[in-house]
Amino acid sequence: MSKNNFVLIRGGGDLATGVALRLHRAGIKVVISELAQPLAVRRTVSFSEAVYEGHHTVEGVTARLIEAQQFPACAKRDADEIPILVDPNADILLSHPFSVVVDARLIKQPPAPLPVDVPLHIGLGPGFNAGSDCHAVIETRRSHTLGRVYWTGATQPDSGEPEGDPRRVLRAPSDGVVIGHKKISEHIEAGEEIAIIGEPNSDQHSVVSPFSGILRGLIRDGLRVTKGMKIGDIDTRDDVGACYLVSDKALAIGGAVLEASMSKAEIRKQLFS
Fold first, then answer.
1. Residue numbers of the domain that contains 98
2. Helix (H) or strand (E) holding 224
3. Are residues 17 and 134 in the same domain?
4. Is residue 65 part of a domain?
5. Is residue 174 part of a domain?
6. β-strands 136-138, 149-150: how paired?
7. Whole-prediction pTM value?
8. Residues 91 and 173 placed together within one structural domain of the fold
9. Per-residue b/e over 227-250, b at no fewer than 16 CB within 10 Å?
10. FRET label pair with 107: which of 101, 122, 161, 267, CA 20 to 30 Å apart?
């Protein structure tokens, strides 16, 4: 494959999915790379679920799991689906050229260098420094600067706290394996048990809802987590439909990635060649 008219998105969580949807709907070819065991919480709107299920559809667009050796065939045809592959180190860059790489892993620390140079490397959120470890960085924190593209410097630093009411974020009370007792989109009452964390035939710790609302996100059953790790999300608005829609924040960030990509004439030419 000689054309580098693809965008590689590293990560398939809910914000990365918003980016993928925006680019895909604009006619740009996208491929997603993920971990072998993705840790998405808002799984209904995360393409990373395709790693477990083989395919996953968000807002009418399907991502399908492929092997790295299948990518050249995918690249040669116009497909309505988005390929996703297990490739945590972005090794696909060593064998296939890409116009743009978007690091949407939200790692909140300086990234390791890419295995090769790319025409445009975009980082999402804290940890990236435009002009140093990437070409552009995009603000991911809700504020008047959400979705702004910076070609020099960094975004707002990581506050360490979730946006809005911090109680809405459910965290693991201990190390262990997650066993969910509720499903995403279910209504939950205050004090109701949502999941347990623990080890088989050992102590188990309950995760309960701090208030009434809709379970907007819950990490996948059977995954091993560490104490303090985000495992769920409660939404007091009680809107079931919101569980199946990419957030306004994710779409804003996706729009920013589109802006950054289209602002460079040479990148535009490559993406639509």
1. 6-159+248-271
2. strand 224-225
3. yes
4. yes
5. yes
6. antiparallel
7. 0.95
8. no
9. eebebbbbbeeeeeebbeebbebb
10. 267
72-81, 189-198, 257-266: segment of lowest average pLDDT: 72-81
Alpha-carbon Rg for the chain, nearest whole angstrom, is 19
241 within a domain of the structure (yes/no)? no
Nearest to 20 by CA among 75, 100, 128, 114: 100
Same domain, yes or no: 79 and 192? no
Is 47 contained in some domain? yes
CATH no. for residue 144? 3.40.50
List beta partners, residue 205.
197
pLDDT, tens digit, 9 for 90 and up, residues 228-264: 999 999 999 889 999 999 999 999 999 999 999 999 9
CA atoms of 44 and 168, how far apart (whole Å): 18
Q: Are residues 222 and 257 in the same domain?
A: no
Per-residue tokens: 23:
């680019």
Residue 170 has pLDDT above 50, yes or no: yes
Q: Which residue is it, tokens 């959120």?
A: 125
The residue type at 86:
V
d(CA 103, CA 9): 6
In angstroms, the CA 64 to CA 66 distance is 6
pLDDT 10s digits, 42-62: 999 999 999 999 999 999 999
Per the prediction, the chain carries an average pLDDT of 94
